[in-house]
Each structure stands twice: as C-alpha cells, then as structure tokens.
C-alpha cells in the first residue's frame, strides 16, 4: 500500500494559529459551505435571468432610488433575493479566510485560495451593479457568469485541498505511471472552459436576456449553438481518450470512477442541451442546463485535481529509477501530499 508523504515543514508553515483554533475537519466543512453558496448564487442568478427579472430592481444597492427593498411584485423580489444571497456567499468565504489562519495545522495555500475567492466575490458584487446600470448588456452578463465559473473553480480547489491532510489513501496507486493520461488532462480542462464560454455566447444571442428589452449579442443563434456543440463533442472525445488511457495504464480505481462520473454527467448535460435547443429553449430546460453546466465544470475540475494528487502519490511511492526526480515526486509539491480520491 502506498504511503503518503507529507512535505517537510517549511518555516512559513510553523505559524501557530492565534486564539481560537479550527480543526481540519471543521475547516473542510467551511469550504463545503463556500462551494454550496457559490452554486446557490448561480442558481438564483439563473432564476433572475429566466424569469425576466434582471431589471426587477432598477437601482443598486437599493432596489429603487426611493426604497431599499422591493415592492410586492414577483420580478423585483426575485432580483432582490439574488442580491440577498450575496450575504451567505460573503459570510462563507470570510469564514474560510479567517479559518485558514486558525486552522490546525496551518496551511498557507488554503488562505491564499480563500482570499482569491473573496476578491472574486467582491468583484462580482460590484459587477452586479454594472450589469444593472448597463441594462443587462450581454457582454457584462457573460462576464458575470464566467467569473462565477471561476469562483466555482476556486471553491472546488479549496474544498479539495482542504481534504489533503484529512484522508489517507485507502489503496495506493503504486506502480501507476500516468504517461498517457497526464498530457491530456489539462487540455480536457481547457476544453471544458471552451464549452462553458461558447455556451455563454449562445445564451447572449438567445431569448433569455433577463428582461424583454435587454440587448442581445449580434450572433446568429444556430451558428453559436453549432460551435458550442462542436466544443462539447471535442470535449467528450478527449474525455473518452483520457478514460481509455487511464484503463490501459491501470490507474487507481477511484480515479477511473471519478472520470466515469464526469462522462455520465457530460452525456446527460449534452442530452439536455439538444433537448432545449430543439424545443425553443424553454426556461425549465435552460435552468436544468445551467445546473448541468456547473456539474460538468465542477466534476471536471475535481477530476483534474484527483489526477494530480494520485499522480503525485504514485510518483512519490515509486522507487527512483534515475538520478533526476520527476516533477511530481517533489515532496514540497502540493500534489505530493494531497488527499486520495474520495
Ligand atoms: C458538456 C455539455 C455542455 C455544457 C457543459 C454546456 C454548458 C453551457 C453553458 C455554461 C451555457 C451558458 C449558460 C448561461 O450563460 O447562463 C450553455 C448554454 C446553452 N447551451 Fe450548452 N452545454 C453543453 C451541451 C450543449 C449541447 C450539446 C447543446 C446543443 C445544441 C447545448 C445548447 C445550449 C443552448 C441552446 C444554450 C443557450 C440557452 C439559453 O438560452 O440560455 N449545450 N451551455
């Protein structure tokens, strides 16, 4: 069984948490809170767009110039609820920043990721105001959505890394040499990014702008949808090749399972994509497609992190064959001590 090696302690890691301390298990729960609140705010944002409530409040941060909270109409309430969800999002990420400083053992990497997420959340709050002021200009709505996807990426990374010193691998991937799969994993994440970006262009050209008077992107919708589905097919093809490579390399079973989950989620999402396109993008299916987009993106990022961890553990466990250590066998590399596939 492969044993996990923790990196040698660096002076910077020897900071004693001051005052109240947070256990590693509690910190992991906090990072789950960050992840969940990021997902929820994307869902409430989608509800705003799909119910045409994007200009339900005409001002920011007040709903209207003369009132902070909305009138009793549905659209302003939906828009206002989306704004209110910013508070749990902020609380969760502030807790993660604070918790990283009080966690035992202290992990500077977690603090850095949490602070980056906090910066992104502040940018999103301000960008939300710009989106309203520019009356849902599609480019600003697209940027708002893409920053949310970046925050989802950060939240998945934070949650994954927070588990690194919690779980030991149940079965080690000793002997696994990811020579075929490793060069394909970053292109896979890049393709997932392309799928998300092209998807936002389809949305920008489509009928759900968040308000009936919102401007739309000057792009022919079927062309945008074709480019989007082409990136999806390319992503799926590379994913299948990665899975075949993992099989032929005898990769650890949990990693193969995670990859298979990405494939299953992506196939389901592709089916929803075609269904909504052929049926004139009904709001319910578009909402399901946004849930699916987060699932594909989140699981792909998780798979990449798992691959990095497992490759790092395998390299650390492998007997040295040459005098030159491989990049992933560097014990100070985060990959060398990250958690096993869960
Ligand atoms: C892995 C599979 C897929 C992923 C991850 C994905 C992701 C996305 C994303 C992120 C958006 C933008 C959501 C937004 O801006 O709110 C989108 C929109 C869209 N996608 Fe996909 N998609 C996938 C497959 C497909 C397929 C196969 C089709 C078929 C043509 C499709 C059709 C559409 C359409 C029509 C929209 C615009 C919906 C709207 O009006 O808001 N998608 N997709």
Name the bound molecules: protoporphyrin IX containing FE
Quickly count the helices: 8
What is the average per-residue confidence, as pLDDT, rounded to a whole number?
88
Major sheet details: 2 strands, parallel
Please give the domain count. 2
The sequence of SSEs as H and E is: EHHEHHHHHH
Poorly predicted spans:
1-14, 323-342
What class would the helix/strand composition place it in?
mainly alpha
Give the strand order, joined by hyphens, for the main sheet.
Answer: 1-2
Helicity, as a percent range: 55-70%
- Write down how many β-strands occur, each being a DSSP E stretch of 2 or more residues: 2
What shape does the CA trace take? flat
Distance between the termini: 17 Å
What is the CA-atom radius of gyration, in angstroms?
A: 22 Å
The fraction of residues assigned to DSSP E strands is under 5%
Give structural attributes.
342 residues, mainly alpha, 2 domains, two-stranded parallel ribbon, 64% helix, disordered N terminus, disordered C terminus, binds protoporphyrin IX containing FE
Commentary on this structure:
Helix 1 runs antiparallel to helix 4 and helix 3 runs antiparallel to helix 4 (138-162). The longest helix has 35 residues, at 283-317. The protein folds into two domains: 19-166; 171-319 and 334-342, no CATH class. It is an all-alpha fold. The chain has eight helices and two strands; from the N terminus they run βααβαααααα. The two termini are 17 Å apart. The protein has helices at residues 24-50, 74-102, 108-133, 138-162, 182-205, 221-248, 253-278, 283-317, and strands at 22-23, 103-104. It binds protoporphyrin IX containing FE. The site of protoporphyrin IX containing FE (HEM) has 26 residues, from helix 5, helix 6, helix 7 and helix 8.
């Amino acid at each position: 069984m492969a044993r996990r090696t923790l990196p040698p302690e660096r002076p910077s890691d020897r900071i004693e948490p001051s005052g109240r301390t947070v256990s590693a298990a509690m910190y992991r729960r906090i990072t789950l809170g960050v992840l969940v609140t990021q997902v929820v705010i994307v869902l409430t944002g989608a509800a705003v767009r799909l119910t045409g409530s994007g200009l339900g409040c005409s001002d920011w941060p007040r709903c209207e110039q003369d009132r902070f909270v909305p009138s009793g109409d549905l659209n302003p309430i939906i828009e206002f609820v989306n704004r209110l969800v910013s508070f749990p999002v902020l609380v969760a990420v502030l807790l993660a920043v604070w918790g990283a400083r009080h966690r035992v053992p202290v992990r500077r990497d977690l603090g850095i990721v949490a602070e980056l997420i906090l910066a992104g959340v502040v940018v999103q709050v301000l960008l939300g105001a710009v989106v309203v002021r520019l009356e849902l200009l599609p480019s600003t709505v697209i940027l708002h959505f893409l920053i949310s996807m970046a925050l989802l990426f950060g939240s998945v990374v934070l949650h994954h890394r927070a588990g690194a010193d919690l779980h030991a691998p149940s079965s080690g991937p000793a002997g696994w040499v990811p020579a075929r799969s490793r060069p394909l994993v970053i292109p896979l994440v890049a393709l997932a990014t392309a799928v998300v970006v092209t998807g936002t262009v389809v949305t920008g050209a489509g009928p759900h702008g968040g308000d009936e008077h919102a401007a739309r992107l000057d792009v022919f919708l079927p062309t945008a949808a074709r480019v989007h589905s082409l990136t999806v097919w390319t992503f799926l093809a590379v994913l299948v090749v990665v899975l075949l490579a993992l099989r032929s390399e005898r990769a650890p079973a949990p990693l193969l399972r995670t990859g298979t989950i990405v494939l299953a989620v992506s196939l389901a999402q592709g089916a929803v994509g075609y269904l909504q396109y052929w049926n004139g993008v009904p709001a319910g299916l578009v909402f399901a497609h946004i849930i699916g987009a987060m699932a594909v993106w989140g699981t792909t990022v998780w798979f990449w992190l798992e691959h990095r961890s497992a490759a790092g553990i395998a390299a650390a466990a492998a007997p040295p064959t040459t005098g030159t250590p491989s990049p992933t066998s560097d014990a100070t590399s985060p990959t060398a001590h990250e958690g096993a596939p869960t």
